[in-house]
Amino acid sequence: MEIRYHHSPKEVSRMTTAELRQHFLIEHLDVADTIQLTYSHYDRVIIGGACPVQHTLKLEAHPELRAEYFLERRELGIINVGGPGRVTADGVEYDLEKLDGLYLGKGTQEVLLRSKDAGAPAFFYLLSAPAHQRYDNKKCSKAEAMPATVGDGLTSNKRTIYKYIHAEGLQSSQLVMGLTILEPGSVWNTMPAHVHSRRMEAYFYFDVAPNQRVMHLMGEPHETRHLVVAANQAIISPPWSIHSGCGTASYGFIWGMAGENYNYTDMDPVAIEDLR
Fold first, then answer.
1. What is the SS3 assignment for 190?
2. Domains identified in the chain and CATH numbers
């Protein structure tokens, strides 16, 4: 498990491209038969990817957590962005097709992840946050995830938002999680941009063609920076930073948040004309 630390807006404004990528981009989440984890000191969120091919993978505690098992004091959101897979939590099996989600609550001791077909392996995106209360383990399919279509083709941002873990969906202690699919011909996400200083956010980009990229915008509204992101890569977004992006073609992304406020709509908008 890699550890990433806080950085202030002043530090970030002076970073080179290489430094920005080192601190905020998570590049290698889809390593076969491995669970890759990154621990961020922004709200102590853990971002991970599990790609079981030939083997069943077990989610283990890391020494940094000082816990007997991974979810002793944590909760976990899982969304499958690959082939059909299965998650077994304390002996209960959950089959996840592509874009199905699963919430696992504090106190779940054993988590096993496997693919149903090694020729079309599952790829589980993981997002975990500290939890002060236990909520029930529960699956949410893509069809159940309260889809809402927003945006407009005229501004190249027509997209459908699917909410999985939130106040009206799967219950959690502080984790909020869902995904967005852009329509063909639309490339902008989260524009107009916003910030929410009460919680951090993580973005995971998927279904990005091998020869395409997403330009992820970050930084303070008056001091923006960008990162070039490929498929199956994630961004750590500080609470003070915008988190928007534009792709060279349509794509999908998983968003997840943790922090002070559990309300999905809690955000401070930034007018497009105020961006610098």
1. coil
2. 2-274 (2.60.120.10)
> For tokens 């001091």, what's the residue?
223
Give the pLDDT band (50/70/90) at residue 261: confident
Q: Answer whether 64's CB lies under 8 Å from 57's CB.
A: no
**pLDDT number for residue 263:** 80
CA distance 239 to 257: 10
Tell me how far apart the alpha carbons of residues 45 and 24 are, in angstroms, rounded to a whole number: 13
CA distances from 73 to 108, 155, 179 (A): 9, 43, 25
For the chain, report the end-to-end CA distance as a whole number of angstroms. Answer: 35
Q: Render the burial of 99-132: b for 16+ CB within 10 Å, e for the rest.
A: bbbbbbbbbbeebbbbbbeeeebbbbbbbbbbbe
Whether residue 187 is predicted with pLDDT greater than 90 in this model: the reply is yes
The single-letter DSSP state of residue 64 is G
Tell me which DSSP letter residue 183 carries.
Answer: P
When pLDDT is cut at 50, 70 and 90, the band that residue 265 belongs to is confident
